[in-house]
Amino acid sequence: MSGIEAVRKIVETEARAKRIVEEAESRAQEILASASEQARNVRQASTAEAEQRKVQRLRETREKAEADARSSDVETDSLLENYKKLFENRKDAAAKKAVELILGG
Amino acid sequence: MAESLDKLHNRILSDAKLKAAGIVEQAEEKSKQILGEARAQAQRDADDILSRASLEAESIRRSILSSRIRANRLRILDEKNEIVQSILRTVEKSLSDIASSNQFDSTLKRFVAEAVEAVGTDNVVVKIGFRNADKKSLQSLGQSLPKGTKLLAEETAIDGLGGVVASDPEGKMIFNNSFRARLERLDNQLLTTISFAIFGE
User: What is the pLDDT of residues B40-73, one digit of tens each?
Assistant: First the structure.
């Protein structure tokens, strides 16, 4: 093998070695880009799921509170009905006592 | 020489492959780190969203309940007030009709005596005005009054419901013993009496 041929072979080998490293760097870029994309997807999916759970939780809370509020309405309706009965049954006695108070006070 | 050249050739390629493997391995490590941090951050973000959701949910719950409870308390107060006002209207009607009842004479005497005593001077002027009052009652009252007392019978009911107003001759000291004035003086006691009689409270 002549000296020139030997130098040519070394130059070819260096070029091949350079390509190997460049390919590896390119692969590394792809890996990092893919990781960044996955990271973004992970965060987006997690946030979307949390937002969905938030909406669900708020809806459930609102429904429960409305149900509790309706039971307060029912309780109040019942109390008002009872007041009407008390009024009918006791209005004469109440008026009599009030008149006595004014006349005698 | 050919052997040395082969060795050099292999060495160059071997170094390159080693370096390439290191670059890829480093990228994979970094990739794992990026994903790990992303997952941790995603968890923190989700926890933060849900934590704020809990506070918001509690606020919504309190707002709905407190506004409904407040509205219902107002309904109860309105109803109670309407009942009390209704009783008061009945009371006012009974008082304005007192001249037609058998309590009139005794009530009139007591009201006049109270008013005269409250003014506390001689020659008290007593105005009396009741709806549908019998003149006889007023005349019989005149006989029971202290000497010097001047009795004035009004044509209309004093303060709308009837009653008695006494004053000194100059009109400087006045005691209003009309039903309306007594209703106002006994306002708190009256409301308590009616409320207790109806609601027991």
Answer: 999 999 999 999 999 999 999 999 999 999 999 9
User: In chain A, which residue's Cα lies nearest the Cα of B79?
Assistant: A80
Best interface-test mutation with B: which of A54, A80, A81 has the largest number of B CBs within 10 A?
A54
Q: Mind giving me the DSSP string for A51-87?
A: HHHHHHHHHHHHHHHHHHHHHHHHHHHHHHHHHHHHH
B180 within 8 A of B160, measured Cβ to Cβ = yes
Residue B176 sits at φ, ψ, to 5 deg, of: -90, 115
Mutate to test the interface with B, among A20, A47, A70, A86 (most CBs of B within 10 A): A20
Res. B138: pLDDT tops 80: no
One DSSP character per residue, B24-74 reads HHHHHHHHHHHHHHHHHHHHHHHHHHHHHHHHHHHHHHHHHHHHHHHHHHH
pLDDT-derived band at B141, boundaries 50, 70, 90: confident
- Model confidence at B26, pLDDT cuts 50, 70, 90, reads very high
- State the amino acid at position B178 in one-letter form: S
Task: Please judge whether A9 and B9 are an interchain contact, meaning their C-beta atoms are less than 8 angstroms apart.
Answer: yes
**Inter-residue contact B87 to B136 (CB < 8 Å):** no
B77 interfacial to chain A (CB closer than 8 Å): no
User: Is the Cβ pair B49, A34 closer than 8 Å?
Assistant: no
- B121 by Cβ neighbours in 10 Å (0-12 / 13-18 / 19+) ranks as middle
Chain A residues lying within 8 Å of B50, measured CB to CB: 50, 53-54, 57
Select from A13, A31, A91 the Cβ nearest to the Cβ of B28: A31
Helix (H, G, I), strand (E, B) or coil at B120: coil
ipTM of model: 0.80
Point out which residues pair with B125 in neighbouring strands.
B150, B167
Distance between alpha carbon B6 and the CA centroid of its chain, in Å? 101
pTM for the whole structure: 0.78
